[in-house]
Amino acid sequence: MSKAAIRPRGAGRRSASWTQDPEGVRRSILDAARLEFVENGLSGARVDEIAARTATSKRMIYYYFGDKEGLYRAVLEEMYERIRAFERGLDLASLEPEEAMARLTGFTFDYHAENPDFVRMVMIENIHHGRHLATSDRIATLNLSGIDVIREAYGRGVASGVFRPGIEPIDIHLTISALAFYNVSNRASIRQVFGHDMGAPEALARRRESAIDTVLRMLRR
């Protein structure tokens, strides 16, 4: 049998694809890596498996990202960039303060519910004591911009007399995040302990409304 006959499927495309579409290859690697890290964590993930999910090679993954931890950090950065980009698209500055906070809370709740991979990656990073977040200036900048969005809307609410003064923007963020995050992170344990499916449509709708109400009650005079 000739060498051509036993060549792995897709191998002929690999060397050419990264030169023709390097950004597409990078995107493909990040997508495959996200699946691998979400399924197996950082410690259990294998670069060989990530390469097998893509039309590239292990060598090219190292070329783009340096090592497995560099790839993991890049996945985290991409995930934080995505949620912050959606937040910016809400255009909260054009809304009245209460409406802005309600929209941000509802969006955050929906985003977590619809993107459990994001929740899983944050949980994995907490297992590693946030050390990869600590080495990413990009993520630090992105998340500070998220606090700035809250600070602006809250400040307008205080100035107009709608919101009570003295609340730190980080505490508002933590409350919104906790209400959205827990509904996904603890879904399996709550189902087993209480027989309650937090992912059911009616449960999600009820919790979403409750989350918005909780945040607004926290802020109102």
TrEMBL record:
<dbReference type="Pfam" id="PF17938">
    <property type="entry name" value="TetR_C_29"/>
</dbReference>
<protein>
    <submittedName>
        <fullName>TetR family transcriptional regulator</fullName>
    </submittedName>
</protein>
<dbReference type="InterPro" id="IPR001647">
    <property type="entry name" value="HTH_TetR"/>
</dbReference>
<feature type="DNA-binding region" description="H-T-H motif">
    <location>
        <begin position="46"/>
        <end position="65"/>
    </location>
</feature>
<dbReference type="InterPro" id="IPR041474">
    <property type="entry name" value="NicS_C"/>
</dbReference>
<feature type="region of interest" description="Disordered">
    <location>
        <begin position="1"/>
        <end position="20"/>
    </location>
</feature>
<keyword id="KW-0238">DNA-binding</keyword>
<dbReference type="InterPro" id="IPR036271">
    <property type="entry name" value="Tet_transcr_reg_TetR-rel_C_sf"/>
</dbReference>
<feature type="domain" description="HTH tetR-type">
    <location>
        <begin position="23"/>
        <end position="83"/>
    </location>
</feature>
<dbReference type="GO" id="GO:0003677">
    <property type="term" value="F:DNA binding"/>
</dbReference>
<dbReference type="InterPro" id="IPR009057">
    <property type="entry name" value="Homeodomain-like_sf"/>
</dbReference>
<dbReference type="Pfam" id="PF00440">
    <property type="entry name" value="TetR_N"/>
</dbReference>
<dbReference type="InterPro" id="IPR050109">
    <property type="entry name" value="HTH-type_TetR-like_transc_reg"/>
</dbReference>
